Amino acid sequence: MKKWNVSLAAGVVLACLLAGCGKNDTTQETTAAATTETVTTEQVATADAQIATGSDLASASDVVEDWMVPIPAENVADGEYDIEVDSSSSMFNITACKLTVADGKMTAVMTMGGKGYRYLYMGTSKEAVAADESEYIPYVEDTDGAHTFTVPVDALDEGVACAAFSNKKEKWYERTLVFRSDSLPADAIDNPSIKTTEDLGIADGEYTVEVTLSGGSGRATVESPTKIKVENGIATATIIMSSSNYDYMIVGEEKYLPVNTEGNSTFEIPVTGFDYNMPISADTTAMSTPHEIDYTLYFDSKTIK
Q1: Residue 296's closest CA among 202, 191, 205?
Q2: Which of 106, 118, 179 is nearest to 147 (CA)?
Q3: CA 36 to chain centre
Q4: Per-residue model confidence (pLDDT) at position 63
Q5: Of 180, 198, 197, which Cα lies nearest the Cα of 189?
Q6: Is the dihedral of CA 217, 222, 225, 228 positive or negative?
Q7: Comparing C-alpha atoms, which of 236, 280, 242, 244 is closest to residue 260?
């Protein structure tokens, strides 16, 4: 019996050696690992090929300005607003945008200047490639035939990563978008960065303050520093434009006429707040027909004297 067991054991070992049991297991594990590594490498290569880089990308601009402080939905009054959206790429041209604020959330319908993009993804290009297609935002064609995208907006005045999938290149192009609070009516926003005369502890009296004009073609400027007069806690600024061709200015819903008849157009307007881009409009007669231009004025409270 003992001899038979030894012989049987020897036979089993021999059979196993002939079949290459241990070697086969090792070979299979090695092959499986190599296959897994190959698939992973191919997946990475495919993902990288779907992301636009280098020469595929146009030059990007910085659209987040120093004065900007993110404004969440809770600081914006419910309603629908036309809003300006800055894009870091001129190739991602947004011609119009409608912002809807309701129940503590914001969404925006962006109308595009072309039809070159199939999807958007609110995030980076790498995140878009890794995401499920169900997370992509497809375009919708409006009644005029333009392509629109409806996107969530977490905050105004904040750089938002947005990846756009090109129909022609079949690649994801990364953009940065900023939904600008200064294009909304002043009374629509409870902006924590805005400071009033009360916040700053400014007593009634006359002062000067540095002021910056932005918007339009970028050629117009205002004289700075400018004079401000505070009465009963309300600040009024004397704004002297860089030309004599402005015949009125609009702040909120009010129209203000020039206070001078010679020299550069001069207006006395209320300062709705310091340390933010205060929206205004000014009508110029320098063109073939009068034309209202949207601007902003930034009164820097640190420079008040």
Answers
A1: 191
A2: 118
A3: 39
A4: 85
A5: 180
A6: negative
A7: 244
Residue where the block lists tokens 């196993």 = 16
Distance, CA of 260 to CA of 250 (rounded, Å):
17
Contact assessment for residue 100 and residue 80, using Cβ atoms and an 8 Å cutoff: yes
My answer on whether omega of the bond before 225 falls inside 30° of 0, hence cis, is yes
Interacting residues of 253 by C-beta distance below 8 A, sequence separation 6+: none
Tokens (6 digits) for 9: 């054991």
On whether the CB atoms of residues 214 and 298 are closer than 8 A, the answer is yes
Q: Which of helix, strand or coil describes residue 234?
A: strand
Q: Which residues of the chain have pLDDT under 70?
A: 1-48, 52-61
The reported pLDDT for the residue numbered 51 is 87
How crowded is residue 11: how many other Cβ atoms within 10 Å of its Cβ?
10
Quote the tokens at residue 263: 């020299």
| Residue found under tokens 């919708």 | 140
Q: Measured between alpha carbons, how far is 277 from 181 in angstroms, rounded to an integer?
A: 9
pLDDT score recorded for residue 48: 67
To the nearest whole number, what is the mean pLDDT of the chain? Answer: 83
- The single residue listed with the structure tokens 């070979």 is 27
- Which one, of 79, 110, 81, lies nearest residue 96 by Cα? 110
Token pair of 222 as six digits: 């205002």
Note the pLDDT of residue 58. Answer: 54
Residue where the block lists tokens 């709705």: 272
